Amino acid sequence: MLDAPSNRPALPPEISRRRTFAIISHPDAGKTTLTEKFLLYGGAIQMAGQVRAKGEARRTRSDFMKMEQDRGISVSASAMSFDYREFRFNLVDTPGHSDFSEDTYRTLTAVDAAVMVIDGAKGVESQTRKLFEVCRLRDLPILTFCNKMDRESRDTFEIIDEIQEMLAIHVTPASWPIGVGREFLGCYDMLRNRLELMDRADRNKVAESIKIEGLDDPKLAKHVPQDLREKLIEEVEMAKELLPALDPQAVLEGHMTPIWFGSAINSFGVKELMDGIATYGPEPQIQAAEPRQIAPEEPTVAGFVFKVQANMDPKHRDRVAFVRLASGHFQRGMKLTHVRSKKPITVSSPVLFLAADRELAEEAWAGDIIGIPNHGQLRIGDTLTEGEALKVTGIPSFAPELLKNCRAGDPMKAKHLDKALMQFAEEGAAKVFKPMVGSGFIVGVVGALQFEVLASRIELEYGLPVRFEPSQFTSARWVHGEKTAVESFVQKNKQHMATDNDGDVVYMTRLQWDIDRVVRDHPELTLSATKEMQ
Ligand code: G4P
Which of 192, 413, 454, 505 has a CA-to-CA distance to 313 between 20 and 30 Å? Predict the structure, then answer.
């Protein structure tokens, strides 16, 4: 077995065995199928098909809402933990639809690496690219899985070139496909000098591995017909000459991605990828925070909320804050300090997400994701510690790109609507603005589909039919500056002003021209399209 490279002093074994990552992909590339196989090999489910019931397209255990099931999209991110070999994998699910990029962005703040799944016939698609850019902002290590090799796919060099060119990252082949489409036999494992052959008869069977001594080993001829063998030898020689060799440090720094080829549905190439995550994926990393960063090996517990999910179980109206542990060894019943309010919180029923089920988490370590049920005190961006006033940084909130007025179908129920909207705002599912002039609320989202999700959830969870109507505004910007300067600006522009759900001042308009004018005429103020979560 290969030793995991490390870019830091040795971590305690319980921490260093953790791999916390997300899968990024364009819809349909095979993320759900791959997740299912991960869970299968992680022993978290017993048979394939448990994650997505057969015949019922697109339903994973991580899809909480009916809306998601109807739409076939995963709207909310959730976490799944499972063991693989001596490693603990924490897989954080990201919503695949582009309308949920903000949620995805925040999810990616909670992981140490990403697995990028691409479809071998389609290459790098728009959503893959967007998500990749987000990973790049944080220099997240990326491992690539080129899926659907059992179908007609592009030439291997072409796929690698496309990734290198479109994403500006070095690509090193960890495996090399033998044949494509109907002729696809399996892969040559370039890192371990092994032949992996796919079993087409049984989709759930893990590939047969054959140890060979280089590509001139006579065993190759036994398993690979001559034409494919010649092609393989020629291509692998070319690849070794033209493409960079695997540099584990460059992978950890996010400059190089190893690529595995496979077919998730045929269980092919998945174990190799999992071995790759174990070996080349990073251990829990240092977390940026103020006034100092947090190292995973610190003995005291620190963590931060990157997602809040309300009403996961409509019967119980609970709210679960997903917390990424940045350091220490957490034990159930611990008293932690909620840094924003300076209040203690006793975490008596933390939840670990083990594939299908939630389980009480008796303990967790830096790198793990735990769910903390609460009544609304935990918000996205909040830090929990054992007392020190640390604030995790880098969890952004984006200005919404679409704004609409939200009205209750029944005006008598407007009060309940306020409550529902506030809750979704705290959950991070939308921005809610209260205009300083006039009544009602303006709801802002990043993608249009979010309005439908909100309307459906408000109706489902609060029994309130709502309408979203066009708003007179199309843009919102947070206003920062000296208190008196902001107040004077607010007084003069009341028609344009609102407060967000945290009480922060927002300037709203229809015209980019207005924004430019404010920027030009008010050098004492800054208008920003993002704000750090409080
Ligand atoms: P996603 O979560 O990224 O959106 O993708 P998902 O896993 O749902 O896969 C999308 C489609 O691609 C599914 O087919 C799935 O069966 C298929 N698929 C996944 N991996 C492979 C593979 O290695 N080879 C081939 N040939 N197909 C693959 P579907 O017909 O849309 O759904 P279903 O009827 O299979 O449920």
Answer: 413
